[in-house]
Amino acid sequence: MPESLHDFEDVFSKESFDSLPDRRKWDHAIELKRDPEPGLRKVYPMTLEEQEELDTFLEEALSTGRI
């Protein structure tokens, strides 16, 4: 771990990763719908070349187990 991050070692600990933080008054919720209708909108519009590059990246990452 880089020396500049030593003060934050507890943030990167395994124990910190395995639990959620305590609830706070400023927490908010995302209300989910029971039977949502699928939409045909793109979240981030891309050109065909960009989409092909993304697909290639995702396939490689999936096949190597990175995601």
Judging from the principal axes of the Cα atoms, what is the shape? flat
- Classify the secondary structure makeup into a structural class: mainly alpha
Number of strands: 0
What is the radius of gyration computed over CA atoms, rounded to a whole number of angstroms? 20 Å
Content of β-strand: under 5%
- What about the largest sheet? none
Distance between the termini: 23 Å
Poorly predicted sequence stretches spanning 5 or more consecutive residues:
none
Give the count of helical stretches. 2
What's the order of the H and E elements? Answer: HH
Helical amount:
25-40%
- Average pLDDT value? 85
What's the quick description here?
The chain is an all-alpha fold and 67 residues long. The chain has helices at 14-17, 48-64.
Note down, in words, how this protein is organized.
The protein is an all-alpha fold. It is 31% helix and 0% strand. The chain has two helices and no strands. The chain starts with 13 loop residues before the first helix and ends with a helix. The mean pLDDT is 85.
